[in-house]
Amino acid sequence: MPRGSAGDVGFWSATFERPTGFDSATFKGDTRFALATFKAVARFESTTFERPAVFTSATFNDGAVFDWATFEHVALFESATFQDDAGFQWSTFKEIALFESTAFQGPAVFTSATFQDGAGFKSATFQRDAWFGSSTFQNDAVFEAAAFERNAWLESATFERALRLGPLVCAEQVRLSGAVFGGPVILSIAARHLECRRTRWSSTAEVHLRYATVDFAHAVFEYPLTIAAEPDPFVLADGQQVAEGPLSGAPAAVRMASLRGVDAAHLVLADVDLSGCLFTGTVHLDQVRLEGTCSFATVPSGTRWRAGHPVRFTERRTLGEEHHWRARQPAAVPGWNATASGVGPVGPAQLAPVYRALRKAFEDGKNEPGAADFYYGEMEMRRHDRTGTSRAERGLLHSYWMLSGYGLRASRAVGWLAAAMLATIVLLMGFGLPNSDPKQEATGTVPAGGGKVTFEIGKDDAHNPTGNRFTGERFEKALNVTLNSVVFRSADQDLTTAGTYIEMTSRLTEPVLLGLAVLAVRNRVKR
Description:
Blueprint: E1 4-5, E2 9-10, E3 15-16, E4 20-21, E5 26-27, E6 31-32, E7 37-38, E8 42-43, E9 48-49, E10 53-54, E11 59-60, E12 64-65, E13 70-71, E14 75-76, E15 81-82, E16 86-87, E17 92-93, E18 97-98, E19 103-104, E20 108-109, E21 114-115, E22 119-120, E23 125-126, E24 130-131, E25 136-137, E26 141-142, E27 147-148, E28 152-153, E29 158-159, E30 164-175, E31 180-181, E32 185-195, E33 200-201, E34 205-210, E35 213-215, E36 220-221, E37 225-229, E38 255-258, E39 267-270, E40 289-291, E41 297-298, E42 303-306, E43 309-312, E44 317-318, H1 320-327, H2 348-364, H3 368-384, H4 391-404, H5 410-432, E45 440-445, E46 454-459, H6 472-486, H7 497-525
Helix pairs in contact: 2-3, 3-4, 5-6, 5-7, 6-7
């Protein structure tokens, strides 16, 4: 084949039975391979196209090599078919490159390619992996309705002016790790996995997702960035829904896998599943905004058994990392999720600040009942932290947990209050109430020869009860004393010495338990 041409080159509908070699060729005129069929390898390595290169509806039955090619004018590959490898590594497209409705049946390799003008992959189909790693898109990158049946590799790609990426569908994984977005952008992606580790956004961004499990570890953004789950399929500008292929029928929920190393000061999460998200190491987590329904992991439900004893957890939202920590404990209760592979262990000392930050985020969002669960989690981590919490403080926290669930479990405080009142009643009936009410006596002395008489009125000492102490009358008196003790009142009931101390103890403990119960109800209903 000729190595170059000064005029137009036309191979309309041509069929190339043997390998074609245009390596290092220079086409100074229009180059037309529309409807051409390359039955063997088509080599355009290091080729320069100074005028439009037209490969519209061309068919490449074997490999197509355009590595290091330079397209100084438009490159048109619309509706072309690459049945084997399509190589465009280190290629340069100085004007618009159109691959609309192109079918890549083999691997599509655009590694380190440069698109100086728009790159159009609208409705393109990639049946094997598509590689765009380290590519540069200096203008629009149009992947609208593009379908990736395997993986889309966009690692370290640069999008200088892209306003929108997608909506696109990927049956497996979209990898944007290390990619750079230089301007405002909206990403619309339906995929099983989205990896954005160390991805950098230099302006505002919105990431709209379906089906995806997202890894945002160490992503960098200094402007508002929204990650939102889309409940309905994406819609194109003409009103048609984007076909979701193998993803159709699966739950469209979006799950966040990691936010480690992220500065969350400008992050908004909407309707995202955070049950397995790794939060430790996230900066400014207290400033994250949670919109819609963002779900978290929950404690094991039902009755569990540990060392032969039944254990039941009160329902609350937890972090996935607490699940991982509890599952590693020697006496772990079944139901806590084990650590995912590749995730370093964290403990209570690292989790307490995370719970504290998320509690503040909920409080700033005026969601006090939601914040209560994270306050409970923070206190649990402090209670179990043997490095940053002293033994005395852990003992105090343990008592607080047992009595009222850190002031959040009203039923627990009411149960202890009822038990304390019952114990007080029993003790008063048994030891506190005298055998009978002491009677008053008046004594006086009549002076000899008459005169003024002086009387002294006293009361008998209360006598310890004897005989049957548990009668209806004594129960009524004990109940009256106990109920008054709950509200710091004295029942003015004559008591034995033991009964006096019993009442004093009751007046100290029972109002505290009543206050904890009221506090727990308040924490659950306040706004």
